Amino acid sequence: MDTDHLKLFLSMLTTQLPVLIVCIAACVVIISRWHQVSAGALWGLIGFGVGAFLCVIIPLSQTTIQRLVINSGGTYRAPILTVLPIIWSSLRAATYVVLLVAIFAGRSTPPPQTQRL
User: Fold this and answer.
1) What are phi and psi of 53, to 5 degrees?
2) pLDDT tens-digit map of 80-110
3) What angle do CA 78, 57, 22 make, to 5 degrees?
4) In terms of CB atoms within 10 Å, which end of the chain has fewer, N or C?
5) Residue 112: inside a domain, yes or no?
6) How many independent structural domains does the chain possess?
């Protein structure tokens, strides 16, 4: 990776930094309180772990693919650069679904309450 692509990767990674910090902090909190948390902790750990992974892999793959497209003459530039954001957005949405599952995993439904007349 030459210096231009490294600069591009680091600038893209910088935009992901707030989300990356929150995901890493959440993973640390979940792991440090593993014995005190509900059954949804594993789902939370998976969700935040995948979120942190995506914060690094998205800029890395975008930089790599841009370099490959430029080096190949840009033949498939439009389709590739259109499909990739859809994939990344779908993966981000999947992490939110996993986090939603974490909220409700292991919770029991409360018994129905009867009203007194």
Assistant:
1) -60, -45
2) 778 888 999 999 999 999 999 988 886 666 6
3) 125
4) C
5) no
6) 1
